[in-house]
Write a structure and sequence with these properties.
It contains one helix and 39 strands. It is mainly beta and 567 residues long. The protein folds into two domains: 325 residues, Glycosyl hydrolase domain, family 43 (Tachylectin-2, Chain A, 5 Propeller), CATH 2.115.10; 199 residues, Jelly Rolls, CATH 2.60.120. Strand 20 and strand 21 form a beta hairpin.
Length: 567
């Protein structure tokens, strides 16, 4: 294990030293899809989708577009998500979809959709569009301002030069009052009463005529309005299309060179695919960049990290958008300016030139938590709003106390699991746990999870009065599989659990003497919890009494994670 670690560290150092004048994509690693970006003077802010996870709407800050710091969340208080915006029992792959972050006259705005499917299957899914505001992007953010009669998902806000504010949304093609995607609409928004007003205009069905048109953003450049959308679905046909108009309500003229970004034309073996759902930002010096999502092709055409955020340079060039006959009877080309993504290659590159020459990328995928704070580190997430009294950072100083719950992994439920985003396919993850289970079926340990029905647990479990080490996993639409289960000989209540991912395999080890002796336990493939949907893997902790009432708990002294970049 030590030899592999040294090799990986050396390899990572070589990659970092490869090009000091370049940055490496993705710029936000781990499950950070649907990026939206805004610049305020010399500062950049990013927000991403978070779906059923809580806290929701992670917000990152950067000075140079390549080094990002997680500074907070748009939704981090229970009162924000227990009413119209429901994250308590939301379905998996529901919840918070495709936010847009904007800034206007001293206030930050996030507009976003919560997608909730009622448990009564006879009822239609609810798409609640709402706006959050804050003076400081670190928070606190306001309670949700619900926008009534605003169908669809992926909303955007546009602040025009004349003081008017517009809400941009989606609906089913040709059905302006229905939830769905396929057509973009725009309507004026009253920020005092948080209500739509005036006429609603359907303005574009995309470059291909309504195939999964979503993710709209409106920009204004040189007195023209630009409408950019995602099209083609979120998988390998994903793409970015753009159109422009001399009025915000259209008609919009499609860029003849659409799509302006996609990977649909590339080999299935390309290092990243499914690129799309983008946002544009203009720098102070007039240059432009795009952020977009993509999926790394690390394992079986996908990865455990899911959809991540990538940075693409953008230039503006003229293109002929049509022909117009003049008064003299001569037909002349109509030329418009259009954004050109990655002008040298036309695709998302692993390495690109730094946006700011003096600001090198200082990426280090290391996370360690010794639980010495009275607040949980911002990196930790829960599946839905956590249950009361789930954990404590004060009952035992320097430890996270995770209480056992009768609940276990279950659809639309809140169980005692918390985790942080996996950011690389190759990693070392370990946790030091003190756990003396009192009742049979009580268990605690490491959990690697994506969804309610897609997880891998490596835990100490009391079975027939004896502590066992058990490794099992659940894959969507398959039964739970126990990979290995062994009695823990000489177990005194303390154990360090290790998971190492390398060469597309997971290696499971443990130590009963504080790391002096590390004992191999099992090996498995690394594809057990591959992202095949919306969400990347979280590495974390888990405790359950599996249906039995108990006052039991597990104490964690620390967790350590180190990721290693591939080529």
């Amino acid at each position: 294990m030590q030899k592999k670690l040294l090799i990986l560290l050396f390899f990572g150092a070589c990659l970092f030293a490869q090009e000091q004048d370049q940055f490496r994509n993705p710029i936000l690693r781990g499950g950070y899809p649907d990026p939206s970006i805004v610049r305020v003077d010399d500062d950049f802010y990013l927000v991403n989708s978070s779906f059923e996870y809580f806290p929701a709407l992670p917000i990152h800050h950067s000075k140079d577009l390549v080094n990002w710091e997680l500074i907070g969340y748009g939704l981090d208080r229970k009162e924000q998500v227990n009413n119209a915006v429901n994250l308590s029992d939301v379905q998996q792959q529901g919840g918070i979809h495709a936010p847009s972050i904007r800034y206007h006259k001293g206030t930050f705005y996030i507009v976003v959709t919560n997608v909730y499917s009622p448990k009564d299957k006879n009822l239609d899914a609810e798409m609640v569009n709402f706006v959050l505001t804050a003076k400081d992007p670190k928070g606190p953010w306001s309670n949700p301002h619900i926008i009534e009669n605003a169908p669809g998902i992926d909303p955007d806000l546009f602040f025009d030069d004349d003081g008017k504010v517009y809400f941009v949304g989606t609906h089913d093609k040709g059905k302006p009052n229905t939830n769905g995607i396929g057509e973009i609409w725009v309507q004026e928004l009253d920020l005092i009463n948080w209500s739509l007003k005036g006429e609603r205009s359907s303005i574009w069905t995309g470059a291909c005529g309504g195939c999964c048109v979503e993710g709209p953003h409106i920009y204004k450049k040189d007195e023209r309005y630009y409408l950019m959308v995602a099209e083609g679905g979120t998988s390998r046909n994903h793409s970015v299309m753009i159109a422009n108009s001399n009025t915000i309500r259209g008609p919009y003229v499609s860029n003849p060179k659409n799509p302006i970004l996609t990977s649909r034309h590339l080999s299935n073996d390309n290092w990243v695919h499914s690129t799309g759902h983008a946002d544009l930002v203009e720098l102070k010096d007039g240059r432009w960049y795009m952020v977009a999502l993509g999926i790394r092709n690390d394992l079986e055409g996908t990865s455990n990290m899911g959809r991540e955020t990538y940075l693409i340079p953008v230039t503006w060039e003229t293109a002929v958008s049509g022909w117009k006959e003049g008064k003299d009877g001569i037909w002349r080309p109509i030329k418009h300016y259009w954004p050109v993504c990655a002008p040298l290659s036309g695709k998302v590159e692993r390495y690109e030139e730094l946006p700011f020459e003096k600001n090198s990328q200082n990426y280090s995928d290391i996370f360690r938590d010794d639980f010495n704070s009275i607040k949980l580190d911002l990196a930790w997430n829960f599946r839905r709003v956590p249950l009361p009294e789930m954990f404590s950072l004060t009952e035992r100083e320097g430890y996270l106390r995770l209480r056992l719950s009768p609940k276990s992994f279950h659809l639309r439920d809140s169980y005692h699991a918390l985790g942080f985003r996996q950011k690389e396919s190759d990693f070392l993850y370990s946790a030091n746990m003190e756990f003396s289970p009192k009742k049979n079926e009580s268990e605690a340990g490491i959990s690697l999870f994506q969804q309610d029905d897609n997880y891998l647990n490596y835990t100490v479990k009391k079975i027939n009065g004896t502590a066992h080490l058990i490794l099992y996993y659940k894959e969507t639409n398959h039964d739970l599989v126990v990979i290995n289960q062994q009695k823990l000989l000489n177990y005194s209540g303390n154990i360090i659990l290790y998971v190492e991912s390398t060469e597309d395999s997971y290696y499971y080890r443990y130590s009963l003497d504080n790391g002096k002796t590390i004992i191999p336990f099992e090996t498995s493939e690394a594809n057990l919890i591959l992202c095949r949907g919306y969400i990347g893997t979280h590495l974390g902790l888990y405790a359950s009494s599996n249906g039995l009432k108990t006052l039991g708990f597990a104490d964690f002294e620390w967790v350590k994670y180190q990721g290693f970049s591939r080529n």
